[in-house]
Design goal:
Elements lengths: L2 H7 L18 E10 L4 E8 L10 E2 L2 E3 L6 H13 L7 E5 L3 E2 L5 E9 L12 E8 H5 L5 E7 L2 E10 L2 E4 H14 L1
Parallel strand pairs: 1-7
Antiparallel strand pairs: 1-2, 1-4, 2-3, 2-8, 5-7, 6-7, 9-10, 10-11
Length: 186
């Protein structure tokens, strides 16, 4: 899928629309769903969390984190992407946002979708990020590459999404956000 086709099929609230998430709650977060535009294809960029982290060590995620007091969710997503992988906010074309995503750990995540050109290198915040990798967007658009499963978590049965790719297992909130993106594009 090319960037032009993506823009036509991806109808989101405009980035200029009001940021509805309240940053006063410490359980509010924002992520950037970065799509790297190679001209002839789009790739989804992921981070792999550092293994020593207390929360979600080694898991695959999007760049993101808590929204600071007084900060909008879009600015938080861009700030976190710059802090985690060295992606300058000026290099991202924010297209809009997906619906809020709740997590089993009590967070509410505001996902922002952004297009960017390929970067020469990434400057990883090694305290948080072990690495980055890309997956073709077309992989996730194929329904047979998206799964759901049930797992008992915190005394409840949770429905979780999973999207394996080669040796990577993308699951949880990250996979749920990707699933919503794919449904939006369908």
């Amino acid at each position: 899928m090319l960037a032009g086709e993506f823009r036509q099929r991806f109808i989101l609230q405009q980035a200029a629309a009001a940021d509805t998430i309240a940053a006063s709650d410490k359980h509010q977060a924002a992520v950037l769903v970065p799509l790297v535009d190679y001209g002839d294809k789009l790739q989804v960029l992921f981070t792999q969390r550092a293994l020593h982290l207390r929360h979600h060590p080694g898991q695959i995620s999007f760049p993101g984190g808590r929204i600071e007091p007084g900060e909008s969710s879009s600015l938080a997503a861009l700030r976190e992407a710059e802090e985690e992988i060295g992606l300058l906010p000026s290099a991202v074309e924010l297209l809009g946002r997906l619906p809020l995503q709740s997590t089993s750990t009590g967070f509410t995540i505001q996902p922002w979708v952004g297009l960017l050109k390929p970067q020469r290198r990434w400057i990883l915040q090694v305290d948080e990020v072990a690495g980055v990798f890309e997956v073709p967007l077309t992989h996730f658009l194929q329904q047979e590459n998206r799964y759901q499963f049930s797992l008992p978590l915190r005394g409840k049965i949770q429905q979780l999404h999973a999207m394996p790719y080669q040796d990577k297992f993308i699951w949880g909130a990250t996979a749920a956000i990707l699933h919503r993106l794919c449904v939006q594009l369908a």
